[in-house]
C-alpha cells in the first residue's frame, strides 16, 4: 500500500512539474488598451497584436478599457496575475502625466509593472499663427517674456502632456505663455485655425497639414533631429532646450513580478514584431516612429526618469488638476 501511495505521489509530482514547465504561451494573451478604440494607442496595440501573434504562435487579442485618463485599464493590469497572459499598452499619459497629477491613480508607474519594451514615440511640432509679427522661436520667447499672458497656447486639458510642456517652457525660459485647456486636441486645433490661439503644438501628423495650407507657421520641433517634412525648422535640442523635449511615447508592460523566462519570451516577440515591415508601415502611417533594439531595462529607466522628473517639477510649480 505504501509503495502504491508513493508511486501516485511521484506521478502527481511529475505531472505538476511538467505542467509548470510547459512552454509559454499555451493560450491567448490579452492586450489591454487603456483608451477608446481609434486613437494612436489603439493603432499601437492592434498592429503589435497582429505581429506578436505570429511571433508567439498564439493569439494576442486587444481589449479597450477606457476611463480616468487611462487609469481604468492600467489599474486592471496591476490587478492581473503575473503569468504573461495579460499585458497593456503604456503611454506617457498613463505612466507619467496621470499618476503625477492624480494621487488616486491607484498604481505606482515605476514599481507596479514589468516593463517589456518601448515600441514607438511621436515627434511634436510647435507652431504659431502665420499673421503674428514674430519671425521665429527666439522672437516668440522675447514676446512671451515682455508681455505677460499675451500669447496663448492651446493644450488638450489641465495636467495633460501639453499643459506640462507649457509649464516647463515658462519655468525654463522665464516666459508667461497662458495655457488654454480644451477637452482634447481636436477642439484646440479648431480654435487655433479660428485664430483664437497664438500658439499650439501637437504631433507631426496633425500639424503638417496646417503648415502646408499656410494655417500655421512652425517655430520648433520636439525631436532629437530635424524632420524630413520640416528640414528648415530647428529642434529644441539645437535651440539649447533639450530638457523640454517631452513627447508622446508607447510601450508594452506586464504586471509586477513576471517570471524572467516569460519576460524574455515577450521581449523577443516584441523585437520580432518591430522588424515586421507591415507593422512599421502601420506605425509610420499613424505618425509614429517605430523603435527597434527593444529591451525592458531601457524602458524601465525611461519610465522612472520621466515620472520622477515630472513629479518633482509638478510639485515645484504646484501643478494639479
Biggest sheet record: 6 strands, mixed
Q: Cα distance, first to last residue?
A: 70 Å
CA radius of gyration: 23 Å
Total DSSP E strands: 11
Shape designation? globular
Strand content: 15-25%
Count of helix runs: 11
Strand order of the largest sheet: 2-1-3-10-4-11
- Classify the helix fraction into a percent range: 40-55%
What low-confidence regions span 5 or more consecutive residues with pLDDT below 50? 5-21
In round numbers, the mean pLDDT is: 90
Structural class: alpha/beta
Please trace the helix and strand order, writing H or E for each element: HEHEHEHEEHEHEHEHEEHHEH
Describe the structure.
- By secondary structure, the chain is an alpha/beta fold.
- Helix content is 44%, strand content 18%.
- It has eleven helices and eleven strands.
- The strands form two sheets. The chain has a six-stranded mixed β-sheet with strand order 2-1-3-10-4-11. Strands 7-6-8-5-9 form a five-stranded mixed β-sheet, sandwiched between helices.
- The protein is globular.
- The termini are far apart.
Task: Provide a concise account of the structure shown.
By secondary structure, the protein is α/β, with parallel strands linked by helices. The chain is built from eleven helices and eleven strands. The strands form two sheets. A six-stranded mixed sheet has the order 2-1-3-10-4-11. Strands 7-6-8-5-9 form a five-stranded mixed sheet, with helices on both faces.
Main traits of this protein?
single chain; alpha/beta; 5-stranded mixed sheet; about 325 residues; 11 helices
Amino acid at each position: 500500500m505504501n509503495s502504491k501511495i508513493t508511486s501516485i505521489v511521484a506521478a502527481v509530482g511529475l505531472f505538476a512539474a511538467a505542467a509548470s514547465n510547459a512552454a509559454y504561451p499555451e493560450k491567448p494573451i490579452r492586450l489591454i488598451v487603456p483608451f477608446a478604440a481609434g486613437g494612436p494607442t489603439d493603432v499601437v496595440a492592434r498592429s503589435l497584436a497582429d505581429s506578436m501573434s505570429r511571433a508567439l504562435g498564439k493569439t494576442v487579442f486587444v481589449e479597450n478599457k477606457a476611463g480616468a485618463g487611462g487609469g481604468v485599464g492600467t489599474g486592471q493590469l496591476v490587478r492581473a496575475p503575473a503569468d504573461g497572459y495579460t499585458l497593456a499598452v503604456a503611454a506617457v499619459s498613463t505612466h507619467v502625466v496621470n499618476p503625477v497629477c492624480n494621487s488616486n491613480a491607484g498604481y505606482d508607474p515605476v514599481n507596479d509593472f514589468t516593463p517589456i519594451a518601448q515600441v514607438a514615440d511621436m515627434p511634436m511640432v510647435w507652431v504659431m499663427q502665420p499673421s503674428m509679427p514674430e519671425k521665429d522661436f527666439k522672437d516668440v520667447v522675447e514676446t512671451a517674456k515682455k508681455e505677460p499672458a499675451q500669447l496663448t497656447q492651446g493644450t488638450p486639458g489641465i495636467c495633460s502632456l501639453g499643459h506640462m510642456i507649457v509649464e516647463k517652457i515658462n519655468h525654463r525660459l522665464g516666459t508667461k505663455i497662458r495655457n488654454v485647456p480644451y477637452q482634447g486636441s481636436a477642439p484646440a486645433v479648431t480654435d487655433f485655425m479660428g485664430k483664437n490661439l497664438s500658439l499650439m503644438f501637437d504631433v507631426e501628423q496633425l500639424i503638417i497639414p496646417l503648415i502646408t495650407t499656410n494655417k500655421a507657421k512652425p517655430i520648433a520641433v520636439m525631436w532629437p533631429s530635424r524632420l524630413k517634412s520640416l528640414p528648415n525648422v530647428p529642434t529644441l535640442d539645437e535651440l539649447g532646450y533639450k530638457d523640454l523635449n517631452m513627447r508622446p511615447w508607447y510601450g508594452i508592460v506586464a504586471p509586477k513580478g513576471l517570471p524572467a523566462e516569460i519576460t524574455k519570451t515577450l521581449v523577443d516577440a516584441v523585437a520580432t514584431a518591430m522588424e515586421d515591415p507591415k507593422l512599421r508601415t502601420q506605425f509610420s502611417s499613424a505618425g509614429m516612429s517605430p523603435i527597434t533594439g527593444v529591451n525592458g531595462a531601457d524602458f524601465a529607466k525611461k519610465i522612472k526618469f520621466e515620472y520622477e522628473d515630472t513629479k518633482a517639477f509638478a510639485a515645484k510649480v504646484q501643478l494639479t488638476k
